[in-house]
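Open question from group meeting: does this chain pack into something compact, or does most of it stay loose? Before anyone orders reagents, we agreed to write out a predicted structure and look at it together. Recording both the input and the output here so the notebook holds the full record.
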Amino acid sequence: MVKIQKLTHTFFYRTIILTMVCICLISSNVFAIPEVSCSLSQDNVLLGDSIILTVKISGVDNPQTPEVPDIDDFSVDFRGMRQESFSHITVVIQGTKVEKKSSDSGYYFDFALTPHRAGSFVIPSFPITAAGKIYHTQSFNVQVLDKAEKSENIFVKVKVDKNEVYLGEKIVVTFKWYLNKDISDYYINIPWLDGLKNFLVTDPELDKNFTYQKLIVNGDQQVIALKNKEFYNGQPYTVISFQKILTPISIGKYNLEPV
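C-alpha cells returned:
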C-alpha cells in the first residue's frame, strides 16, 4: 500500500509538472509577438546578376506573402517561401532534467532583385503587414557594376594634388597599388619616375602617427609605403600607397605617363 501511494504521488507529480510545461508552451505560442525583419544577400552586384531580398516573419501562423513594391531600376521576382523552425523545452522531474529542446520558428520570403543599369542605388523602405499590424523595413544601399568594370586583381592609380604650378612649386604625387589577392612581397615598376628630367624628385616628410613599410620600386629602390584596406567599384582591396614630391625646374607642359 505504501509503495502504491508513493508511485501514485510520483505519477501525479510528473503529471502536474508536464501539464504546467504544456500550458506554458501553449501560452507562449498564443502570446508570441510578431516580428518582421528584412535582409539583403549582398550590397554589390554585377549588371545582369541578381541579389536576394529576404523578408522574415515570425510569431505569426501562415503569414501571407508580403508585397514588395516596384523598385526603380530593378525587376522584382518572388522566388518562394521557406519555413525554418526548431523547438526547445526543459522538463524537470523531481530535480532531474530529462529533456531539453528549443523553440523558434519563422517564415522566409525570398525576392530576386535584378538591376537594369549600373550605378549606386537605394532599395527604399517599404511597409509589410503582419497580424494586422504594419511594419517598415530598413533601406539598403546597392552598388551595381557593369561587367566591363569588373575589378582586376592588381592595378595602380596615380594622382597629383594639382595640375598647374609655378616654377619651383612642389607637386605631391600619390601612387596607390590595389591588390585583391594575397601577395607577400611587393615590387612595382615606374620607369618614367627615374627618367624625369624637368623635375627634382624627393620624398615627403613622414607622419609619425602612421606605421610604414618598405616597398621596392624599379627593381632596386626602396620607398616608404602605407598599407590599408579600401573598396573600389564595390570590391575590397589591399592598398599599398606612397608619395613623391616633384619640383619643376623648367617651364612647360608635362604628361606623367601611365604606370
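Observations to bring back to the group:
DSSP finds two helices and 18 strands in the chain.
The chain has two domains: 35-148, 154-248.
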